[in-house]
């Protein structure tokens, strides 16, 4: 069971809302979010309702202002707890949409997609085991995208604005 607390103001001040499960629309609970406390669990918070817009991965800890979670603004409109996964991780990435072109298998973190595979883009993927995060830039920087088990035929299915992926990290306990 996870627990995350959203605060309207910086440094855990102002109106707050406590959440222990996924929520597709937080708008009725607070108008802005300037600080977050994660008491337990791993979470993805989203800039827009229905798990859309910028995504931010948060682990247990205190985030006294939105810059601490690499936020671009004070807008948080949905959240999703990431289930604990203790097993192996496996993902197939493809250089073309619809699982076309060259395929590579990943079972561990990849700090630079370009250095490892000489690719800068992923157009489709299949997540077999575990939860992963795609990062827009190498060394786990830039926009983040939660990759849950399943098939993603095109980059927009994981919320990507483009096919650019610089690094990939497993979510481990």
TrEMBL record:
GO biological process assignments: lens development in camera-type eye; visual perception
Keywords: Eye lens protein, Repeat
Highest taxon above the source species: Eukaryota
Domain Beta/gamma crystallin 'Greek key': 2-40, 41-83, 89-129, 130-172
One function term, GO molecular function aspect: structural constituent of eye lens
Coiled coil residues, start to end: none
SMART domains membership: XTALbg
Keyword Zinc recorded: no
Role, per record: Crystallins are the dominant structural components of the vertebrate eye lens.
Name of the molecule in the record: Beta/gamma crystallin 'Greek key' domain-containing protein
Record organism: Dicentrarchus labrax (European seabass)
Encoding gene (name): LOC127378775
């Amino acid at each position: 069971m996870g627990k995350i607390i959203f605060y309207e103001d910086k440094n855990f001040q102002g109106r707050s809302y406590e959440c222990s499960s996924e929520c597709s629309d937080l708008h009725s609970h607070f108008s802005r979010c300037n600080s977050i406390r994660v008491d337990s669990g791993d979470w993805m918070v989203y800039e827009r309702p229905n798990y859309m817009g910028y995504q931010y991965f948060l682990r247990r800890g205190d985030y006294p202002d939105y810059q601490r979670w690499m936020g671009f603004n004070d807008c948080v409109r949905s959240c999703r707890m990431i289930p604990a996964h203790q097993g192996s991780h496996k993902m197939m990435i493809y250089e073309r949409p619809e699982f076309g072109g060259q395929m590579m298998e990943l079972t561990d973190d990849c700090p630079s997609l370009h250095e490892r595979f000489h690719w800068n883009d992923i157009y489709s993927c299949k997540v077999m085991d575990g939860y992963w995060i795609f990062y827009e830039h190498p060394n786990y920087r830039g926009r983040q995208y939660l990759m849950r088990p399943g098939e993603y035929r095109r980059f927009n299915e994981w919320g990507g604005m483009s096919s650019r992926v610089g690094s990939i990290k497993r979510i481990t306990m």
